[in-house]
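Quick sanity check, Phosphotransferase:
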Amino acid sequence: MPETSFQGQAVDTTPASDVFLVIGIPGSGKSSVSAELARRFPLGAHIEGDHLQDLIVSGGHLPSPEEDLEADRQLLLRARNASVLARSFHAAGVVPVIDDVVVRRAHLEFYLDHLKDLPLRLIVLAPSAEVVGRRVAERDKVLADDWSFLDEALRTELTGEGAWFDSSRMTLEETVDAILAKD
């Protein structure tokens, strides 16, 4: 077997063209859209907020409607970790696509601060409540019955931020095409 040396091998190359942050409420299509979006690039990475949360195997606190300061702290930790990964992939020429539930201005500003100086494209997925309800009912994940308060927060606090897409009547491919067509 030939010997291989990693000595002198550069990891970082020409930086990637874009960094995507795809946000919305649970059931809005973030994971599906983000994975397909990442696949559209020669080098693309899907960074899923839920998977980063799952790395906490002891003492994890998931976001909930009730006040939980530790859950809030862990939500910001996962945003910071997603941003660190995005910066690393971007520097290596890999287009990172982060997907996460972001509905509050403070949470978005935390992300924006950690992704500053990158060619960030903020994508907000906002299908109708009926479509989201159907999608959540069809999933294996166990979620609260009513996430309408998150939709209300998203539409109240983040209106005017990023490029909004109502994917209610769009296929996955059509949604990704629309995102890529938007400059």
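Posting the structure with no commentary besides this: The chain is about 45% helix and 15% strand.
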